[in-house]
Specification:
The protein has about 400 residues and is an alpha+beta fold. The chain has five helices and 23 strands. Helix 4 packs antiparallel against helix 5.
Length: about 400
């Protein structure tokens, strides 16, 4: 009898915890970094990272720059988006975190103290397609600090942009869409270039027949231009100031292997650069680069190749919202069964299990990997790369895995 009572008590306790997790309050504070005071009247949106980005709630900051949300599922990761002066600022809200601070800035169309530290072109090619990853690193040192709403870039003639993402210092990559401008081959990357370092990455493809001349034009000339080509691709240029360099000196990722690198410094305003490539070769995977370099597969810095980032917001309502009480009823039944199983099968141990150091972060690593897959799935759907049936099937599987990963991380 005592055993049954204990099982029921355990199940009820877990059900109460589950209900509590459905409604938690999150508070936030928004500061205007230009005026150094609370930012009042900004629109704040709570986005749930599940199956992409789903809008969960919306409010505005009060006269003290404060806002408050009631989160329906605190076990899921969220993002807080603040819109100030027609610019969006994002702050990640991990599971269990109940407060967030966001700094916004006044915006100007063009920041005078904005420098393009370097621009990199990473190339790989097969028999008929050239694929390039362009990386732009900017530093905004304006004083007083202000934000530039976006950044304009040129792509080579004949290039087709495939994807893009942006990331502020110590931030999370956000997927963006290059917006074509009236001038040929010119695009706007719509992401705030806030004070500090901002990194943009654009992936494009071009038809390729084994040889190609790339003519590059710059809206903002970089201090340093890098061209990295996969082994097997030959680089040549008539410009004497294009010099061969060691890929280990590349400031974006010094662990890159399987490439040759050429560098040009001090490009003047209005400069145009041409170079020729021929042959074919593919870039190594991050794991192959890490193995070849004898280093960990996890980068020391948040900079990385394109592929992550937040998806496009989903306006559909949360399917759990209308049936959450029925869900909790079913959950309680499973908890009772699970509690009974744990109670009847668990054996006390005089020793405490020790988790190996190398395994402690596996739940967090799994969570990040699943989030990346969800984001990429949303991107593929928006670009029409997969059918509706394939999308629905993959999303359902990823959602379940993501939920399990979140629970494991919370239990670790």
């Amino acid at each position: 009898m005592n055993r049954i009572a204990s099982i029921l008590l355990l199940a009820c306790s877990l059900a109460v915890v589950a209900v509590a997790q459905q409604n938690e309050t999150v508070t936030g504070f928004v500061t205007n970094g230009t005026a150094h005071k609370p930012s009042a009247g900004d629109q704040v949106t709570l986005l749930k990272l599940q199956g992409g980005m789903q809008e969960e709630a919306r409010t505005k900051t009060d006269s003290r720059g404060q806002f408050q949300f009631s989160i329906a599922d605190s076990s899921a990761p969220h993002v807080v988006r603040v819109r100030h002066a027609d610019v969006n600022y994002h702050e990640v809200l991990p599971p269990g975190v109940k407060s967030v601070q966001v700094t916004v800035y006044n915006s100007v169309s063009k920041v005078s103290d904005l420098k393009l530290l370097d621009q990199s072109e990473i190339l790989e090619a097969n028999d008929n397609t050239l694929r390039a990853i362009e990386v732009f690193r900017l530093r905004n040192s304006a004083f007083p600090p202000v934000t530039q709403p976006g950044f304009d870039v040129y792509l080579p003639d004949g290039a087709t942009p495939r994807m893009a993402e942006a990331m502020s210092a110590n931030g999370m990559p956000i997927k963006i869409a290059p917006v074509p401008l009236s001038q040929k081959n010119k695009y706007n990357l719509n992401f705030p270039v806030r004070p500090g370092i901002t990194q943009f990455e654009v992936v494009y493809t071009m038809p390729y027949t084994g040889k190609l001349t790339l003519q590059r034009k710059f809206d903002t000339p970089p201090d340093h231009l890098y061209v990295l080509a996969a082994n097997g691709i030959e680089f040549s240029s008539s410009r004497a100031d294009f010099q061969a360099a060691d890929p280990k000196t590349w400031p974006v990722d010094a662990t890159m292997t399987g490439v040759t690198m050429h560098q040009m410094d001090g490009l003047p305003t209005g400069a145009e650069v041409a170079f020729d490539i021929s042959g074919k070769g593919l870039l190594p995977s991050p794991q192959e680069s890490a193995s070849a370099g004898g280093q960990s597969a996890e980068p020391a810095q948040p900079q990385r190749r394109p592929g992550g980032g937040l998806g496009t917001p989903n306006d559909r309502p949360d399917p759990l919202h209308n049936g959450q009480w029925a869900f909790l009823g079913v959950l309680t039944v499973f908890l009772v069964a699970g509690g009974a199983y744990v109670y009847t099968t668990a054996k006390p141990s005089a020793e405490t299990a020790v988790v190996p150091a190398g395994k402690k972060n596996r739940p967090a690593m799994l969570l990040e990997a699943m989030k990346e897959e969800v984001f990429q799935l949303e991107s593929d759907r928006l670009q029409g790369k997969i059918s509706t049936q394939e999308y629905e099937s993959a999303k359902a599987a990823l959602d379940k895995t993501l939920q399990r990963a979140v629970k494991r991380q919370g239990a670790s």
